[in-house]
Amino acid sequence: GLAILATSFLLLRMLAFFLARTQFPPGPCPLPILGNLLQLRFQLHPEKLSQLTRKYGSIFTVWLGSTPVVVLNGFQAVKDALVTHSEDFADRPVTPLFEDLFGDKGIISTSGHAWQQQRRFGLITLRALGMGKKVLEQRLQEEAQYLVEIFHRQNGTSFDPHVPIVRAAANVICALVFGHRFPHGDPFFQELMKAIDFGLAFVNTIWRRLYDAFPWLLRQLPGPHRKIFRYQEIVKSLICQEIERHKQRVPEDLEDFISCYLAQITKRKDDPASTFDEENLIQVIIDLFLGGTETTATTLRWALLYMIHHRDVQGEVQQELDTVLGPSRVISFKDRKLLPYTNAVLHEVQRFCSVISVGAVRKCGTATTVQGFPIQKGTIVLPNLASVLCDPEHWETPWQFNPGHFLDGEGNFVIHEAFLPFSAGHRVCLGELLAKVELFLVFAHLLREFRLRAPAGASTNERDYILWGTKQPRPYDICPLELGPRSPGLPSCLTPP
Ligand code: HEM
Fold it and tell me: 422 alpha carbon to ligand 1 midpoint, in Å?
């Protein structure tokens, strides 16, 4: 009797599962419980997803366990969903881990009224600090100069630029939110970086996947997943110290994110619809670190790697920087208009490395239709941004590093409609402008100062990558040779052993 009951239950579950499938765009056949996880080798690899388009078209469904995820591939499908139906896809799905970590606070994992208020304020404040008052640009120039100093200090020896670049990107966020940078040895900064590094690494572990698959179990069990909550408490207490320091300051001093936010809390204190409070402030700061550190740092690491591989491109950038800026003029963001080739190279770096390949998941908030497929409310949607940045219908040489994608016949910079590394629509990256200023200033500062080479005998592959949250290059060493009259000759790392 029990066996018949169990078999019927199983059959009913399978029937429900296969009926559910018919409500989503067709895709590879899922297994019960595991869905397509085995086929995908437990990872949403951009190339694997692009391969599936050959069989199922630009919109298909994959099942991550029992969760259906509609994947959008290529420029047209992504544009149709995120731009044409922007409002319908403005929500973000929240996994159990993110729910336990962030609750309904901050920007990255919230939706609805709270998200709208926090995001709007974030955008306005970033614009005011960055473009209006220009305090941010000065701090970015300072940070770029610190990085130049670190490269100088290598004194001709080769080194892995990973750590200094990540620290520089984190210091940019420190400058934005706290109003100042930190020396790399500062205990506060070191603790903050340890926690951020741990958080970003944890996202890629099996423990994160297990937590999201079996939250009811993992919430009760001890294990390495507990550490993420401990690190979160450390980060929160570090941020609280900075908030307390800001409260002692003159209220008119609105030169960083915390001061602006504290003023906003006071301004809106009698508004019952206000979501401005210190808990939200802390989470927004964590979001700025999560969104703005690894992404920009990884893009810069790709940029330097591409320059090692494409010495002709590097040479042209340096020539343009020399001719337009000379060796000592302060570099500012508006200079990019005078530097069309350098600007095109940076855009091509972002296109070719597609740092956030398939990370920006959305949730359908209102039932809608994308390219003829009905999408139900609540469906999770995954735009494959890498497939947009390499869409053969939109890029002349999608698989080659080619700054010509962003130049017209006269050498003027031209933007391309399929350039969407920051995604698009209502939830487009909040830090797009800051990231662009940072990438430009750091890249121009480094290339004006150094000729970049791989150390003698080193072999690196610009197409090889590790999918570690962002799409990362494999670790590599770089040999910076000082340019101009300061350069005495070949540094030791370029001399064959
Ligand atoms: C969201 C890319 C730098 C803060 C995103 C998204 C992408 C992205 C693809 C997802 C958007 C979506 O849901 O469709 C990048 C890249 C960067 C970069 C490629 C650098 C090269 C930054 C910086 C900051 C930042 C510097 C901080 C100042 C955020 C935040 C969100 C976000 C807060 C969430 C927005 C929301 O959910 O409303 N970014 N980002 N990002 N980014 Fe960036």
Answer: 6
Neighbours of 86 (CB within 10 A): 14
Cα-based angle 226, 231, 232 (whole degrees, multiple of 5) = 95
The CB density around residue 350, as the number of other CB atoms within 10 Å, is 20
Mean pLDDT, the chain, as a whole number? 90
Residue of 196, 422, 436 to test ligand 1 pocket, by largest number of atoms within 8 Å of CB: 422
Distance 354 CA to ligand 1 centre (A): 13
CA distances from 90 to 87, 98, 118, 276, 375 (A): 5, 18, 14, 21, 14
Domains of the chain are 112-494 (1.10.630.10)
Check pLDDT > 80 for residue 136.
yes
pLDDT grade, residue 301 (50/70/90)? very high
Q: What is the pLDDT of residues 192-247, one digit of tens each?
A: 999 988 888 888 788 887 888 788 888 999 888 899 999 999 999 999 999 999 99
How many residues belong to the chain? 497
Residues annotated within a binding site for heme: 429
Single out the residue of 193, 239, 229 nearest to residue 99, CA to CA. 229
Paired with 73 in beta bridges are: 384
Q: Whose CA is nearest to atom 42 of ligand 1?
A: 429
Give the mean model confidence (pLDDT) for residues 423-444.
96
Cα–Cα distance, 225 to 227 (Å, whole number): 5
Using a 10 angstrom Cβ sphere, with 0-12 exposed, 13-18 middle and 19 or more buried, the burial of residue 128 is middle
Write out the DSSP string of 374-427.
EE-TT-EEEEEHHHHHT-TTT-SSTTS--GGGGB-TTS-B---TT--TT--GGG
Q: Does position 404 have pLDDT exceeding 90, yes or no?
A: yes
List, in sequence order, the alpha helices (H) in 268-398. Answer: 278-292, 294-309, 311-325, 340-353, 385-389
- Chain segment 36-81, per-residue pLDDT in tens: 988 888 788 888 898 899 999 999 999 988 889 999 999 999 999 9
Q: List ligand 1's pocket residues with C-beta within 6 A.
A: 92, 107-108, 119, 287-288, 291-292, 295-296, 299, 355-356, 360, 362, 421-423, 427-431, 434-435
Tokens 């469904």 sit on residue? 61
Q: How far is the CA of 235 from the centre of ligand 1 (A)?
A: 20
Regarding an ipTM greater than 0.95, the answer is yes
Q: Around 332, how many Cα atoms within 13 Å sit in the side-chain half-sphere?
A: 9
Region of 243 (left: φ > 0; alpha: ψ -120 to 50; beta: rest) is alpha
